[in-house]
Amino acid sequence: MADERTPIRDLFAQELRVVNLGLSSFAETLRAHGTPVVDLEWRPPAGGDAELAELLDRLTIDGGWIETIERANVEAVTRLLEAEPRVIGIGIARDVIPGMTDRTILHAGPPVAWKRMCGPMRGAVIGGLLYEQLAGSPGEAEQLAASGEISFDPCHHHDAVGPMAGVVTPSMPVWIVENASAGNRAYCTLNEGLGKVLRYGAFADEVIERLKWMGDELAPTLAAAIEAHGPIDLRSLIAQALQMGDEGHNRNRAGTSLLIRELAPFLVRLDGARDSIARVLEFLNANDHFFLNLTMPAGKCALDTAANVERSSLVTVMARNGTEFGIRVSGTGDHWFTAPAPIVDGLYLPGFSADDAAPDIGDSAITETAGYGGFAMAAAPAIVQFVGGSPDQALETTRRMRRITLAESRAYQVPALGFRGTPTGIDVLKVVETGIVPAINTGIAHKEPGIGMVGAGLVTPPFECFAAAARALTERIEKTEA
């Protein structure tokens, strides 16, 4: 850049050193002529929305509420960082999940009625009713689901989480995860594996038979091993897995392996039949995603302790039901802020394409909300082979998430970034100010019920959810402080 005393007429006689703000396309002509250009990622505050920008000013300028928000956020994020999730057992959903009844079916994401459910969620509900023997055929299951005799409710309303469709029925076995720092619990089903599975909306005979085996043999065997072992420290296992190439959402090979190592000595000492224990170990070994259904309730029970902190702008839930994407914020109570669920940008299994994809679905974004998953992609460069992108993009994703979070994890560290902690604690006001939305990697279900998984990829959450939450938080603060 020219010295401030340089006449403007002499400016272009010097070597140009250009900083480009905004779209990279602005710099393409200069680059084409050999002029070096540095791109600076910049967006107008609040995405150029004058109303949102004014809202942020009201919170942060002199006389605003920024100090009370910061104090609330310190309290909320401290609770999140201090959480100590532990596996303490496996139970039956109706017996352990609060509010569960024999006619309750839980699902992923914000509330949604049967008539508005997407294809894969309908498929999972059909499969769940077949599994419970409440229906004898898919057609009977659809009639029952539409009859009003079944109560549908989000997993998040019952201290639970569910991957993809997230369907939990009364007799399904579920993990019981307890936060030792606060005593609260979270629940999640056991992972079925990939492909044609219930959580992706498949309900063929093989799906139901697998679920029955999981309930009859897998769950009781694992429950006995956990009882013999004692509580399993999930924070430690997740921390180790991140340093072994996992990110805790779509890559769980290391976490699953660590869990097997933890339980194997106790499994082989059980009094059960040797063949039964062998089948359990073979299933775990063949299912790299098994640990996902533990990273999710680990994040859930950690974030639940940070919920309902008055004035806090910490995001405590991000969840999708295939129809809507929804978030909850600590300082706005249990209210959902929703927008239409987007389509995932991803890689597809042979024979499938984006035309086959259902909109984004699942509670598994609880991992990103808790500070791993997409926020820890720098720890798992190999994840790009599954969801797309490049190793450099994985590193940049984690760096970018620091701009919208309140802290760095003390437990979950990234070797490739000098063992810095993962970005943790999404701040809804920072999302609105920067226009940067959380990075989420996820699976892709077929849009029609009964087919199952078709791919995996990266999804961009709708900015509208965060904008609506920021408005509601501002109104609530101003009302209570008036």
Describe this structure in words.
With 482 residues, this protein is of the alpha+beta class. It is 37% helix and 19% strand. The protein has three domains: 8-42, no CATH class; 49-80 and 307-481, v583 fold, CATH 3.90.1700.10; 84-298, Enterococcus faecalis V583 domain (Enterococcus faecalis V583 fold, Alpha-Beta Complex). It contains 16 helices and 17 strands. The strands form six sheets. Strands 7-6-3-8 form a four-stranded antiparallel β-sheet. Strands 11-10-9-13 form a four-stranded antiparallel β-sheet, with helices on both faces. Helix 1 links the parallel strand 1 and strand 2 (37-40). Helix 15 crosses helix 16. The chain starts with 17 loop residues before the first strand and ends with a helix.
Question: Helices and strands in order, then pairings?
Answer:
Blueprint: E1 18-21, H1 28-32, E2 37-40, H2 50-60, H3 66-81, E3 85-92, H4 93-96, E4 104-107, H5 119-131, H6 138-146, E5 151-154, E6 173-179, E7 185-189, H7 205-229, E8 232-233, H8 234-242, H9 253-268, H10 274-286, H11 292-304, E9 315-321, E10 324-329, E11 337-340, E12 345-348, E13 361-362, H12 366-370, H13 384-387, H14 391-401, E14 405-414, E15 420-426, H15 428-434, E16 440-445, E17 453-459, H16 463-481
Parallel strand pairs: 1-2, 4-5
Antiparallel strand pairs: 3-6, 3-8, 6-7, 9-10, 9-13, 10-11, 12-17, 14-15, 16-17
